[in-house]
Design goal:
The complex is a heteropentamer of chains A (170), B (645), C (109), D (462) and E (501). Chain A is an all-alpha fold. In chain A, 72% of the residues lie in helices and 0% in strands. Chain D has 462 residues and is mainly α. The chains are: A mainly alpha (170), B mainly alpha (645), C mainly alpha (109), D mainly alpha (462), E mainly alpha (501). Chains A and C meet through helix 1, helix 2, helix 3, helix 4 and helix 5 of A and helix 1, helix 2, helix 3 and helix 4 of C.
Chain lengths: 170, 645, 109, 462, 501
């Protein structure tokens, strides 16, 4: 069993466990931490598939920026475990069942997928910043520009929603 | 003289014009003028009818078919508006116009107490009736006949309910119309069948001696013919008040007496006989129907006569006797004595009209009293009425040489020829007739007066306008029979028979008498003797001198007598059999409509509302639930897509 | 390594994310679960990009990068969404002092 | 491309406008100017004048259909601005920000009407959605508005996740390893499992966007909670844009294998028709009723996806126009009302004949009565569906549902004309003549389209 | 000659439409009435003139004046083509004839905001005209619906107290039916050949007649069409909207509904169902005729029990309609010709009936039969008119209805002896219920409501006399009507016969 496989299994199990942790842990803060672990393991996978750039971005953007944002918010609301009274248990069960059914369906479907046994190719540094950058700014320049619109609207949104209104003007 | 046929359409037209004038101008024109117009137009058409009659009685006269305009034209089925004139028609024209003229004259005085507009209404109705009746008689095909047929029904409806303030009269009128409608229903179906079978309804094409469709049909008793004839006969039953549709006629006496005389005795009710006589060829081809006709006729004759025995209302007695006489006519038709039947129609028109008018005169004198147990001894006060009435009784009882004798005898003879049993029953009926007629006569005119004092003072002979028609009719019913003297009494004395011969020529084999001379003589004499005995018995029995004895008539009877007095409860029976059930069914249907049919429609709406109320609960407001439902939906779609193969 | 491993892994994460979204009431955690779903997708895409390498050769290598670029865009969008989403959550918290989605039931039926 | 760039730029302009405009009323006029420019730009492109030549590497593909649809959408937006400009000001402080967000949405609309790769589809949809989350929540003090926006956001994000998974699976199943939608089209062979799964997920995600059952649950709550002006915008222009994207995607990528997944659409359509119409029957608030009716109308538009032929595309354009015009007009009337319940409309026919009459025209159009655009639109849909030749029962179901829809639309008409008005004086509605005039214009447009739909459709073959 | 500039169908269509629209903008109620009356009279004049050009003998001219077609939706092969054949002439005449009558007789009645009322009435007339002249399935459907909308508003705005629900039921019911028909139309359309270069199918009547569908297709298509028409007519058991609606609707509207709108169903059966789906007709005719015949008896029985004059007339009308339906599906010359004539006669008679009921209701203030009585004593003129009209309704000879009913019954009888016989029971029952009402309302003693005499205004007298005269004329000499519709009937029967082979 080659090392990559070992690594794969380790990371995968870690990811799944952490994911379960996210879903199950009472305290939001914990789930954030669990989620960060998931992200790290996923980045590990990226490296495994030598998509280094994405690995880094993933850690910076997600684990770094986004999760911190989450943490801030949670802290700011100082939600603790007690804040969340348990949902109706049968709804929980149904939810779990539904999710697992979905999983089963997918697995059952893909087990006879034609290309499910093709091996992943390594080498040829597609994942390197150089190549990605080239494609991004040559071929994908239009979507790149357009995504700016997305950010603009997000920004405005943050302003519109976040900014305190002074009542008398309305 | 042939040109008279260019004027034929005036015969019905004139009464129609009279109807319009009297109807529209009933407020404007004075009573006398109304009377004059009403009777005048009839008189003119009577004269025209006489001319027509003369023409038709000429040698070598061939039936005339006068086509005016296409009434219904469907390309392959054409129903023209046409008249058909032959001997039968002309005879009926005479009877109708003649009798109705007399009755118009009579009414002019009889109805003079009516209000101005009522008087006008009365005469316009009467004219309209004559118009329709003439249309019925003249019509050249069954559709036109049907038009007249329903027209007379309408007029009888209007005239029975003439005094529409009284709801009993209205009910009587409605009853008459609806019972007629039931008959018409059969008649109509008959016509439809005729149209779909032969593609035509005009006598010309059906009965023409050369190329008539019917005459070319050889098969006796073919189901089509039987069906059609029976259906037509249903119509006749309705119109001519035979069992089971006779009950309207006695009620119809609610109308003014002249109306009863004209419509419910002389003319309209004989339309059935006319129709069957008209389609004699068809009937001759359908012996089965003939049997039915004969038996129903005979049954009615007896049944009605029996009921008549116990009636105390002078008009009711006459009504039932009419029904029974009509039964005789149908018997005649049934046994193929078409001539006899028509002959009896004629004589009956005379003496029954006379009887009614006489009764009218009596009622008039008694100030509206109709109960014979409250009369008696009027003979002394009202000579003319009495005598004419007496003549009429002799005539109807069938005592020679009065009119009734010959016609009835001819029918009975034919019946004997056909089947002796028919004859015996018929004779029994004749005896009953004689009995109740003389009972009536005796109770009314002889013995002691049983009414109140002031009635007694009031009683007087009626004015000329009433008595003259009585006299004329009396004469007619006295001598009217001589147009049809049997062969054996007088060589070719049967003028009427010879006259009508061409009409009934095709049904010759059935109508032929095969009686030997002396049998006929024997029958005649026996019947005459029996009738005489009965009459005298009845006369003596009811010539009551002391009023007390009358209680025998008025007291509550029991058993069979009670049944007779109550007309065998037929009305009650019909009520229970038809009227009530109809009500029940209608109610049921209405409920079904409300609950079931409309229920389904509204139910659809309700269910939509209900569904809406339920489905909206899915919208619980919980994001969790929404996502769950989405996931489940996604699952289902996935499964269908991936595993449905 | 077979592609199917990665498929199953990312599907697993995806479904866990869904389960989380179904079972939790805290809107922030629900949101986080959704982020988890997105990440599973990213993982899958990268895996596919690797799988398509051999297809890539005939397209001059470009195709393989497509997926990774796509992942990049997904991250962008995710970031934008997070900013907006958290803003909304905060606004709500200001008003009702709670982030419990079960309290969101003024609008129903 | 004109449309995308202009709208984006104008969005930025409006954004900065927020800083510079002093009077609350100014942004409205700028916005109107902007939308007119946008419209012109788009029409210019339709006639072949490209203001900017950008090599999109065929990621965006501007054909008659998309451009024509853009025209429709922009015209509707223009109408929307004209009718509701004033009401936008009432929502909150950041008037010009609202407008700029709307412009960004329009940018998203024009992207999703002309995308050619899944990436662009994704971006387009997101650019459409994110501003809407904000607009929904823009009435900050109103708890309903907050709640609506959070619900919308959470479920929207969820559907995004599903869509992405779908895209990923399709990419995986696509042996060419490409996101171009026309490369997915593998001829009429058996659908590979992975692509099939991806397709289902995409259907789910798109159905969510166009609020088709059983993925419609956000719609009533969000439409009800959001400020009515924005509801009107969301329910009309954005929704139909979603449909355009939907049909564009599935026709060009999976059109050939239509038979293999049609059943899914059939199910969704049937469910949408039933749920939409049935639930609307019960509603007391006109606003919420319209939300459900929008679901019901979506069900009818789903018929286009069921049919997936040229008639369907024509029909969709026509339906888009008819539905948007009617709904915008109706919402505009609704906003003026003080009371959103059906009783609130009592006796409007007496008080405001013009408003009542036009509202009646809109309602009739939504019901699909001849002489209104609604009829021709429905007619085209049915025509397309029957032409398709399968599942005739679905058509029958559709018309029966149309009959049911009459049930709730006519409740409003009854209220306006046959019920006595509420007596209290503060219930009086008063509107400007200009507003009335615009309403009449709208109604006239609807009737014109109802009589000569060719005016709109024939451009497709320009 | 008008015909050379505008064809008759156009004029018949546009005059009421345009004038109707104008009416909405007239303020004074008196001038509104005058205007409406004027417009309807103009329409009547046109239609009368058109009757002189109805003779198919010199065909070219006839065709020139009576047919026209404009481009409309050429890409889907539908053109705005309108035309008049015999049946079209007949029904447009009925429409044109009944409206001025109704306007005149209700001239005294005051409707609040009358401009809307008369405007809607005229629009409705336009709708009817459109239905009767449409030579293109889509155009037909267009007007079929359009006629419904004004009716809806008229009934629910100016009707009785329970008007809203009743009318709404009526609307939804008929709307559902017509939508089903629409799907049917579309299906048939997709089977048609291309008649124009622009489209590969066509909605034109010609195209619809030219195709022969598979029996299997026809069998279910039949019901889509039949349902719509049966609801409109209405044929048992789709009749339940009718009594309520008639009870609630204002008089002048109900006159139109029962006099003309009902004919839309009959007309459509003959024009759009029989020739298009002949084999299905041949398959289901017994069933349908049975339904209709049941309807006759059923409705007559229920009419017996009605205590409200309006409901009574409604039920009696259902019975008549049932007979029409049976006659149509008997597929015989006699039956179809009968229906043609009956469409006219029933129109006239029932309007007349409504007029009288209206007068009684207005003057005595009650419609309850039980509360009326003895009217004949105080107001003989009214009584006479009513009796004549009632007799026409029970198809007494020499009234118009006799001819048509005679032929229809004859047709049904030819179709099936027993069915025919069963149907004929209707004539007995009709006599029963009619005479019941005549007796209870006009004869007997006066009641509290009928104390004071009803004096007919001169106008009412004139109108009723006109009606009575036309009743009698049509009853004695119906030949012109036969000639008018002869070709239509022949054509349809020929198509049916061809399909039979």
């Amino acid at each position: 069993m080659p090392a990559t496989h070992l690594l794969f299994w380790f990371l995968s199990i870690l990811a799944v466990v952490a994911a379960i942790g996210v879903v199950s842990s009472k305290n939001p803060v914990y789930s954030v931490l669990w989620l960060i672990i998931v992200f790290f393991s996923i980045s590990g996978h990226y490296i495994l598939m030598n998509a280094q750039f994405l690995a880094i971005v993933n850690i910076i953007v997600y684990a770094g920026a986004i999760m911190v944002l989450f943490l801030f918010v949670i802290m700011l609301m100082n939600l603790n475990a007690a804040a969340e009274p348990p949902k109706h248990v049968y709804l929980k069960i149904i939810g779990v069942i539904a999710g697992s059914c979905l999983m089963i369906v997918f697995v059952a479907a893909f087990s006879q997928a034609s290309n499910s046994h093709t091996l992943l190719r390594n080498g040829t540094g597609v994942g390197l910043i150089k190549n990605l950058g080239k494609t991004l700014f040559s071929q994908y320049v239009v979507p790149f520009e357009i995504s700016s619109v997305l950010f603009l609207s997000a920004m405005i949104g943050a302003v519109v929603i976040g900014k305190k209104e002074n009542p008398e003007t309305v | 003289m042939q040109r008279i046929f260019d004027l034929v359409y005036w015969i019905p037209m004139l009464p129609f014009i009279g109807f319009l004038i009297n109807g529209l101008g009933r407020k404007a024109i004075s009573k006398t003028l109304i009377g004059l117009i009403g009777s005048g137009v009839i008189f003119i058409s009577f004269c025209l009818s006489v001319l027509v009659f003369i023409t038709t009685s000429k040698e070598g006269f061939s039936p005339q078919n006068i086509n005016y305009f296409p009434f219904i034209n469907l390309g392959k089925i054409i129903i023209p508006f046409e008249f058909h004139v032959d001997q039968l028609t002309s005879l009926f024209l005479l009877i109708v116009t003649g009798v109705s003229f007399l009755i118009h004259v009579y009414s002019a005085s009889y109805m003079k107490d009516e209000t101005q507009s009522g008087y006008g209404r009365y005469f316009s109705y009467l004219n309209l009736f004559v118009f329709s009746m003439l249309l019925l008689v003249l019509g050249g095909n069954y559709v036109i006949m049907f038009i007249g047929w329903e027209g007379v029904g309408l007029c009888s409806y209007l005239l029975i309910g003439f005094w529409f303030k009284n709801n009993d009269y209205n009910n009587a009128a409605k009853k008459a119309f609806i019972m007629n409608r039931i008959g018409d229903f059969g008649f109509l179906l008959g016509i439809f069948w005729m149209l779909s079978a032969f593609g035509t309804a005009s006598y010309q094409n059906l009965f023409n001696s050369q190329d008539g469709i019917i005459t070319s049909i050889s098969a006796i008793n073919s189901p089509v013919i039987v069906g059609i004839t029976l259906l037509l006969f249903v119509g006749a039953i309705g119109k001519s008040a035979q069992i089971p549709l006779y009950t309207w006629l006695p009620d119809a006496m609610a109308g003014p007496t002249p109306v009863s005389a004209l419509i419910h005795a002389a003319t309209m009710v004989t339309a059935g006989i006319y129709m069957i006589a008209r389609s004699n060829i068809m009937y001759s081809l359908a012996p089965t129907s003939m049997v039915v006709v004969a038996s129903i006729g005979l049954a009615t004759a007896i049944f009605a006569a029996v009921i008549a025995l116990k009636q105390n209302d002078i008009k009711k007695v006459l009504a039932y006797s009419t029904v029974s006489q009509l039964g005789y006519m149908f018997l005649g038709l049934g046994v193929g004595a078409y001539t006899g039947a028509v002959f009896h129609v004629m004589t009956h028109a005379f003496f029954k009209a006379l009887l009614f008018l006489g009764a009218g005169s009596v009622i008039h004198a008694m100030g509206g009293e109709q109960d014979i147990t409250k009369m008696g001894g009027l003979g002394k006060k009202m000579r003319i009425t009495y005598i004419t009435f007496f003549i009429a009784c002799l005539a109807i009882a069938g005592i020679p040489p009065f009119a009734g004798f010959f016609s009835k005898d001819e029918i009975l003879a034919a019946a004997f020829a056909n089947n002796p049993i028919l004859y015996y029953i018929g004779l029994a009926g004749a005896l009953l007739t004689a009995f109740y007629m003389f009972r009536l006569l005796a109770l009314t005119f002889t013995g002691k007066f049983r009414g109140t004092e002031d009635q007694l003072h009031h009683v007087h002979e009626s004015p000329a306008a009433i008595t003259i028609p009585l006299i004329i009719l009396a004469v007619l019913s006295a001598i009217g029979g001589f147009v049809g003297i049997p062969e054996i009494l007088m060589k070719n004395g049967h003028a009427l028979g010879d006259f009508l011969a061409p009409v009934f020529a095709h049904s010759g084999p059935v109508t032929a008498h095969n009686l030997s001379g002396q049998t006929e003589i024997i029958l005649m004499t026996t019947s005459v003797i029996l009738i005489l005995i009965v009459s005298i018995w009845a006369w003596r029995k009811y010539k009551i001198e002391e009023p007390a004895a009358i209680v025998s008539e008025t007291r509550e009877t029991t058993g069979f007598a009670k049944a007779i007095k109550n007309k065998f409860y037929v009305d009650e029976l019909y009520n229970a059999l038809f009227v009530k059930p109809l009500q029940v069914i209608s109610n049921l249907l209405r409920k079904i409509d409300k609950s079931a049919i409309d229920g389904i429609v509204n139910g659809a709406g309700k269910s939509v509302n209900y569904g809406s109320r339920q489905i909206r609960l899915l919208q619980s407001g919980q994001v969790g639930t929404y996502i769950l439902l989405m996931v489940i939906g996604m699952l289902i779609l996935l499964i269908i897509q991936l595993f449905s193969k | 390594m077979e592609i199917s491993w990665y498929i199953y892994l990312s599907l697993a994460l995806f479904c866990i994310g869904i389960i989380g979204a179904l079972t939790r009431r805290n809107s922030i955690i629900v949101f986080m679960c959704i982020e988890l779903m997105l990440n599973s997708v990213n993982l899958l895409l990268v895996a596919f990009s690797k799988m398509h390498l051999q297809g890539a050769n005939m397209f001059g290598g470009a195709q393989a990068t497509d997926a990774q670029i796509f992942v990049f865009f997904i991250m962008i969008v995710a970031a934008a969404e997070v900013s907006v989403g958290l803003a909304i959550i905060v606004m709500l918290y200001r008003n009702i002092r709670s982030v419990d989605i079960n309290f969101l039931n003024r609008l129903k039926n | 491309m004109n449309a995308i760039i202009v709208s984006a730029l104008w969005g930025v302009v409006m954004m900065f406008g927020g800083v510079f405009f002093k009077k609350r009323t100014t942004p409205k006029y700028w916005a109107i100017a902007g939308i007119i420019i946008l419209l012109v730009a788009n029409i210019l492109e339709f006639f072949g004048t490209h203001l900017f030549n950008v090599d999109t590497r065929d990621m965006l593909h501007f054909d008659n259909f998309s451009l024509h649809f853009n025209t429709v959408a922009f015209s509707c937006t223009l109408l929307f601005f004209l009718l509701n400009g004033r009401d936008v000001e009432k929502v909150g402080q950041h008037v010009s920000e609202y407008f700029s967000l709307i412009f960004f949405v329009l940018c998203g609309v024009s992207i999703s009407s002309s995308f050619n790769t899944l990436l662009m589809l994704f971006l387009g949809i997101e650019i459409m959605s994110i501003p809407l989350y904000i607009l929904t929540g823009s009435d900050k003090r109103n708890l309903k508005s907050n709640e609506a926006s959070l619900k919308y956001f959470l479920m929207g994000a969820f559907s995004t996740g599903i869509m992405l998974m779908g895209i990923a699976l399709i990419y995986g199943g696509n042996s060419l390893g490409s996101f171009y939608i026309n490369t997915i089209n593998l001829g009429s062979g058996e659908l590979p499992v992975m692509i099939a799964a991806g397709l289902v997920l995409l259907i789910v995600a798109m159905s969510f966007k166009v609020s088709a059952a059983p993925f419609h649950f956000w719609t009533p709550d969000v439409y009800d909670g959001a400020p009515t002006v924005f509801t009107s915008f969301m329910a009309t222009i954005v929704k139909i844009a979603g449909f355009i994207a939907f049909i564009r995607l599935f026709q060009s990528s999976f059109g050939v294998m239509h038979q293999q997944w049609q059943i899914l659409i059939v199910i969704i359509t049937a469910a949408t028709l039933l749920i939409g119409n049935l639930t609307a029957v019960f509603q007391q608030s006109v606003k919420r009723m319209l939300a459900y009716s929008s679901i019901a109308q979506a069900g009818f538009m789903m018929l286009a996806l069921f049919a997936l032929n040229d008639t369907a595309k024509e029909g969709l354009i026509l339906y888009a126009a008819a539905y948007s015009l009617a709904s915008i007009g109706l919402f505009a009337v609704l906003i003026k009302m003080n009371d959103y319940t059906i009783e609130g409309f009592n006796g409007l026919g007496r008080q405001q004949p013009v408003m009542a009459f036009t509202a009646t025209v809109f309602l009739l159009s939504l019901t699909g009565i001849p002489l209104t655009a609604g009829f021709t639109a429905k007619f085209y849909m049915l025509l397309a569906a029957v032409k398709n030749g399968h599942q005739f029962w679905l058509v029958i179901l559709a018309v029966i549902c149309a009959a049911i829809s009459a049930y709730y639309y006519f409740k409003v008409i009854q209220a306006m004309y046959f019920k006595e008005p509420a007596t209290d004086i503060n219930n009086q509605v008063n509107v400007s003549p200009a507003f009335k005039f615009l309403l009449i214009i709208t109604a006239a447009l609807i009737i014109i389209l109802g009589v000569v739909p060719g005016l709109l459709i024939d451009w497709l073959y320009y | 000659m008008l015909g050379t500039y505008y064809t008759f169908p156009e004029l018949l269509l546009w005059i009421p439409f345009v004038t109707g629209l104008i009416t909405f903008f007239i303020k004074k109620s008196t001038s509104v009435k005058a205007w409406a009356l004027f417009s309807s009279l103009a329409t009547l004049v046109v239609s009368v003139i058109s009757l002189f050009y109805s003779d198919t003998a010199h065909h070219t001219e006839y065709f020139l004046y009576n047919n026209v077609s404009y481009f409309w939706l050429q890409y889907i092969g539908s053109s705005f083509s309108v035309g008049l054949d015999g049946m079209g002439h007949l029904l447009t005449f009925l429409t044109a004839f009944s409206f001025p009558l109704i306007f005149a007789v209700t001239y005294k009645t005051e409707y609040k905001n009358s401009n809307a009322f008369y405007g809607l009435m005229l629009l409705m007339q336009a709708g009817f005209m459109g239905v009767f002249v449409a030579m293109d399935a889509l155009v037909f459907y267009f007007f079929w619906e359009l006629a419904l909308i004004p009716a809806y508003f008229l009934c629910s705005k100016w009707g009785g107290e329970k008007r809203i629900q009743a009318t709404f039921k009526f609307f939804i019911y008929t709307f559902t039916g017509s939508l089903l028909m629409l799907t049917g139309i579309i299906y048939v359309y997709l089977q048609t050949p291309a008649l124009t270069a622009t489209a590969d199918h066509s909605f034109s009547l010609r195209a619809f007649y030219s195709i022969a569908l598979e029996p299997s297709q026809q069998n279910w298509l039949f019901w889509l069409f039949f349902l719509a028409f049966a609801i409109k007519m209405p044929i048992f058991p789709f009749h339940t909207w009718q009594p309520d609606t008639y009870e609630q609707a204002p008089y002048s509207t109900v006159m139109v509904l029962s006099g003309v709108m009902v004919k839309m169903g009959v007309f459509a059966m003959i024009r759009w169902l029989l020739p298009v789906l002949p084999s299905a007709v041949a398959k289901f005719d017994h069933l349908v005729v049975a339904l209709c015949v049941i309807g006759i008896i059923y409705a007559s029985c229920i009419a017996l029990l009605q205590n409200d004059l309006k409901r009574f007339v409604a039920w009696s009308s259902i019975a008549h309609i049932g007979l029409m339906g049976a006659a149509i599906f008997s597929q015989t010359v006699s039956g179809l010709q009968g229906v043609m004539v009956e469409m006219l006669n029933h129109g006239i008679n029932i309007i007349a009936l409504w007029i009288v009921v209206d007068i009684i209701d207005k003057k005595t203030g009650t419609r309850k039969i039980s509360e009326l009585g003895g009217l004949a004593l105080k107001s003989p003129a009214l009584a006479i008119f009513f009796v004549i009209i009632a007799l026409a309704n029970i198809a007494l000879p020499l009234t118009n209805a006799f001819v048509s009913e005679f032929m229809m019954f004859n047709g049904v009888f030819q179709f099936g002896k027993w069915l025919g016989a069963f149907a004929c029971i209707g004539i007995i029952l009709s006599a029963v219920y009619m005479l019941n009402v005549v007796q209870k309302v006009f004869f007997g003693n006066t009641s509290a409501f009928t104390q004071n005499a009803i004096v007919l205004s001169a106008g009412q007298k004139v109108i009723l006399s006109v009606i009575v005269v036309s009743i009698l004329i049509l009853g004695i000499y119906p030949q012109p009507v036969f000639q008018l519709t002869h070709d239509t009937v022949a054509d349809i029967l020929q198509r049916l016969a061809m399909a039979g082979k």
